[in-house]
Design goal:
The complex is a heterodimer. Chain A is mainly α. Helices cover 34% and strands 6% of the residues of chain A. Chain B has a domain at 438-481 and 646-800: 2-Layer Sandwich (Aldehyde Oxidoreductase, domain 4). The chains are: A mainly alpha, B alpha+beta. Chain B: InterPro entries: Ald_Oxase/Xan_DH_a/b (IPR000674), Ald_Oxase/Xan_DH_a/b_sf (IPR036856), Ald_Oxase/xanthine_DH-like (IPR016208), AldOxase/xan_DH_MoCoBD1 (IPR008274), AldOxase/xan_DH_MoCoBD2 (IPR046867), AldOxase/xan_DH_Mopterin-bd_sf (IPR037165).
Chain lengths: 158, 801
């Protein structure tokens, strides 16, 4: 769990999001719907983003789970993606934000090693996360900025 | 380019109007903000609500014993447990008409009980609650409550509810008619229509939609037996309103025994300003159990309990000359209030809609009548752009229909009828007096920026790709800045609608601003700090902003109708001016000079012509804290408050242009470009307003293209989760082309107009106009929203609506 071992007994029907929020107090991961649609509960399981309301805790046993709490220390410096989203004001009420940060991580992390993602690619990447405040535009700009910064830092053409 | 038509207000430190980064963002980005569901008080018990599975029925019996015996269950309660609790009142009754409501004591128009005991009136109507040790135990126990129903006939449409023989919802409301409300001049309008060279008519359905903030609602009640005080943590956009309504009108407890706290709120768009049964229930059950009681809604629960929006069926008529001069507009609307009058739903469905129908046009005669009816659906309330969006939709559809009828370009018709600049303040004949505007400048800018002149060529090019391109215009005026309390009382609003701000300057020179408003994602902490810093000439980083807790700000009204920047921010500015004025008076004492020689600059004071005889802001703050040497007429310390009640509303406006492409094969509509030029007067933080404009447009596009609350014949909400209710996703929208004009409002010291939700008002009309334009050669004159691919595909193949 965010790089640290956690040991506990999970009920067979316990959802990963319940374990994170109620069992471990990691409330950065949110619950916004009952159907796996909204994306506020996205975390990374073994490096891939998953909706933690659709994962049984037991099935994640032995896996590596990363949540928003693992992105930065409390009050600490923002990650490249978070910083880019801050500069583009890619948040309003913030409820969908942790899920978006976790969903977009993969895209931004690989940005330095590949072509910069196109706007349609970024939008496609975001389709699993609902936002009602921003209409996504500032989030898309934030990802573009984060990818550009990552590529620039790696000496790539922006 | 930004077209400016007014002078900027005098500024101090110059931070107002700057796109400062939101200070709220880092915490949100790290997932560290606390929403209601994240609140974890010691010994908290968890509440679940049993909602009715049927839309209309008599309750014959409720059996709770089996549920009470389940593991972890602490209490099961029904209406019988709360007979001394008053129903949740409606406080916006359409003004000037006879209204019918279910009763409430105190002579108020009542509304719904906290739990329904005799008759359920919509799916989700709360019947019973369970409190248990864990949320899962509480939810599981709901299934063990046995309720026996005697089904009653169901009606879900306003027009059908008013027909003879329709099922009756409330004994006190004959024929289901809450109110017949009118505005404008009927005789003049009827005459103008009768005499007109051209008339056009449309039957419109402004479909019911669900606001869908991504955070569901939630509430935590905490009763302190030692003090008799209640604390409510709730996802609310108006903690002060909820305190007023709950303490005085529902629980019957003293005002100062209830504290309401809005933690971080995950979006609202109108829905979280309403009073809901759960808010009262967690408080009552906390008292009964001696423990905090927490309730967090599910998405399906939200969709079956939280106020829904729009929902008008309208017959509308426009009259004009053959050469494009509009002479009259008339609207008959059937508004669906749902099963119970929500806190302000009846006012939204009448005044907010009806008085806005003439939009940016100078029309000689206008009239609107609304039949507001009760049906077996979730209560109606506000929704981003509420009332104004419905008004703009009907008017802008009519203008296109009229332009097509007389064979004139829709832009030319609009241009010809805009209220001229010299006519402000402008009485629109429907009850609103527009404060200021330069509509021509705004309209021309949108036409130019959208490349409107190139559309014929783009249409021809699209055809070569199997696409039909259409362009749609929509203009709007949105009444904002609620409001002038006396004026709102004439509209039937119970209670003042002013806004408050307090500023304290601490001895070390830091400043705390406390406002009665409450953010639901609008970065109030950033913007109000800018306002105070600008007025005082200090660094905004030294300004702290507190809100959202009735114990921090004694009074206030909250955030709704895009009012915070034109209501709370002026209160902040005026309070800062009081501070400044006191510092000038005290400065004269400290500097030993006459008051008219004191110059206030950069937060400090100095003697005119002698900058060495000076005191900095921090020095002044400390001196005022000590209070040494102050004459009797100057009180020590710096602590000022303002209650701002404006002389009138403010009226932002704008022009939007949608360009769509329809796939001939699939009927799919894609918004390929969208241009919006909005005018919200002087803006405090353009970065924050930009986000609100973009989100608002996307919300409006959602109504046009995909969103609909669908009830079946039994009154079941079919679209009750996010697999069946479609919200726009990132791939559904392009980047928009945005600009602004700036026409300050004379009704507040910042020249501000409402901004947050105004761009939600025209997109539905713009998109439907664009789609009808694309299909016009097929004889299509109107399509009801949402414009799903199937619906458009059928029209492409010549099927009637």
């Amino acid at each position: 769990m965010n790089g640290r071992p956690e040991q506990f007994a999970a009920q067979p029907n316990e959802l990963l999001v319940e374990r994170l929020r109620d069992g471990l107090g990691l409330t950065g991961t949110k619950v916004g719907c009952d159907t796996g649609q909204c994306g506020t509960c996205v975390v990374r399981l073994d490096g891939r983003s998953v909706k933690s309301c659709l994962v049984l805790t037991a099935s994640a046993a032995g896996g590596e789970v990363a949540t928003i709490e693992g992105e930065t220390t409390r009050g600490g410096e923002l990650s490249g993606l978070q910083e880019a989203l801050r500069q583009e004001h890619g948040t309003q009420c913030g409820f969908c934000t942790p899920g978006m940060v976790m969903a977009l991580g993969e895209l931004v992390e690989n940005a330095a090693d590949r072509e910069a993602p196109t706007e349609p690619e970024i939008r496609e990447w975001l389709t699993g996360n609902l936002c009602r405040c921003t209409g996504y535009h500032s989030v898309v700009r934030g990802v573009q900025r984060a990818c550009a910064t990552a590529r620039s830092a790696a000496g790539q053409e922006v | 380019m930004t077209a400016v038509t007014g002078e900027a207000p005098a500024t101090g430190s110059g931070v107002l109007g700057q796109p400062l980064d939101s200070r709220e963002d880092p915490q949100l980005l790290r997932g560290e903000a606390t929403y209601v569901a994240d609140i974890d008080l010691p010994r908290t018990a968890h509440m679940a609500i049993l909602g009715s599975p049927v839309a209309h029925a008599k309750i014959l019996s409720i059996e709770t014993k089996a549920a009470e015996q389940l593991p972890g269950v602490l209490k099961v309660a029904t209406a019988a447990d709360f007979t001394d609790v008053m129903p949740l009142p409606c406080i916006w009754i359409p003004g000037g008409v006879e209204s019918h409501f279910p009763p409430h004591p105190y002579g108020l128009p009542g509304a719904r009980p906290v739990l329904t005991g005799d008759t359920v009136r919509h799916v989700g109507d709360p019947i019973a609650v369970v409190v248990a040790e864990t949320p899962r135990q509480a939810t599981a126990a709901l299934a063990a409550i046995a309720v026996e129903y005697e089904p009653l006939p169901v009606v879900t449409r306003a027009d059908e509810a008013l027909a003879e023989g329709a099922p009756q919802l409330h004994e006190a409301v004959p024929g289901n008619l809450n109110a017949y409300w009118t505005c404008g001049d009927k005789d003049r309008t009827d005459a103008a229509i009768a005499e007109a060279e051209v008339t056009v008519e449309l039957d419109l359905v402004n479909q019911r939609t669900i606001n869908s903030p991504i955070e569901p609602r939630g509430a935590v009640g905490d009763y302190d037996a030692a003090t008799g005080e209640y604390t409510l943590y709730a996802s609310t956009q108006g903690p002060h309103n909820h305190r007023f309504l709950l303490s005085a009108l529902v629980l019957g407890i003293p005002f100062n025994k209830l504290r309401v706290i809005a933690p971080t709120v995950g979006g609202s768009f109108g829905t979280k300003g309403y009073l809901y049964p759960d808010m009262a229930l967690v408080l009552l059950l906390s008292k009964a159990l001696g423990r905090p009681v927490k309730w967090v809604d599910t998405r399906t629960g939200l969709m079956n309990s939280t106020v829904q929006g729009r929902d008008h069926r309208q017959h509308v008529t426009l009259a004009g000359t053959r050469d494009g001069r509009i002479t009259a507009v008339r609207c008959t609307s059937y508004a669906n209030l749902g099963a119970y009058p929500s806190t302000i739903g009846p006012g939204v469905a009448t005044a907010l809609m009806g008085r806005s129908i003439s939009g940016m046009y100078d029309i000689g005669a206008a009239f609107c009548e609304v039949y507001a009816a009760f049906t077996n659906t979730v209560s109606l309330g506000a929704q981003r752009g509420s009332g104004r969006a419905e008004a703009a939709f009907l008017m802008e559809r009519l203008v296109d229909r009229y332009a097509s009828e007389i064979g004139m370009d829709p832009a030319a018709v609009r241009r010809k009828n805009l209220v001229p600049k010299e006519k402000f303040p402008y009485d629109n004949g429907l009850g609103w007096t527009y404060d200021s505007g330069n509509y021509q400048l705004n309209f021309d800018r949108a036409i130019e920026l959208s490349g409107y002149a190139d559309m014929p060529a783009r249409k021809a090019e699209a055809r070569t790709r199997g696409k039909r391109l259409g362009v749609g215009l929509a203009t709007y005026v949105a009444i904002c800045g609620v409001g002038p309390s006396t004026r709102m009382s004439q509209e039937g609003m119970l209670g003042g609608t002013w806004e408050s701000a307090n500023i304290r300057v601490h001895p070390t020179g830091e400043v705390t601003v406390i406002v009665g408003s409450a953010s639901t994602g609008q970065s109030h902490g950033t913007v109000f700090a800018q306002v105070a810093a600008d007025e005082l000439g200090i660094d905004p980083a030294t300004v702290q902003v507190l809100e959202g807790d009735t114990q921090k700000a004694p009074y206030g009204q909250g955030t709704y109708g895009s009012r915070s920047y034109s209501m709370a921010a002026p209160a902040v500015a005026l309070t800062a001016r009081k501070i400044k004025s006191k510092l000038i008076r005290a400065g004269a004492v400290f500097l030993g000079i006459p008051e008219d020689k004191v110059v206030y600059e950069g937060g400090g004071v100095h003697e005119e012509g002698n900058e060495k005889n000076a005191k900095t802001f921090a020095e002044l703050a400390m001196s005022m804290w000590y209070g040494w040497g102050l004459p009797a007429e100057i009180e020590p310390a710096l602590d000022e408050t303002t209650h701002f009640d404006p002389p009138d509303f403010n009226y932002p406006f704008g022009t939007h242009v949608a360009v769509v492409e329809i796939d001939e094969l699939t009927g799919e509509t894609e918004v390929v470009s969208y241009t919006a030029v909005d005018d919200a007067g002087h803006i405090g933080n353009p970065k924050i307003v930009l986000g609100q404009i973009e989100g608002s447009i996307t919300h409006g596009l959602g109504q046009a293209l995909m969103e609909a609350a669908v009830y079946d014949e039994q009154g079941l909400l079919v679209s009750s989760d996010l697999t069946t209710y479609a919200l726009p996703r990132a791939a559904d929208v392009p980047f928009f082309t945005l600009d602004k004009t700036v026409t300050p409002s004379p009704h507040n010291p910042l020249g501000a107009k409402g901004a947050g939700e105004i761009a939600t008002v025209p997109p539905a009309a713009a998109v439907v106009n664009a789609v009808v334009d694309a299909l016009s050669d097929l004889g299509v004159q109107h399509i009801d929203m949402p414009l799903t691919p199937e619906k458009v595909w059928r029209r492409l193949r010549g099927e009637a609506q």
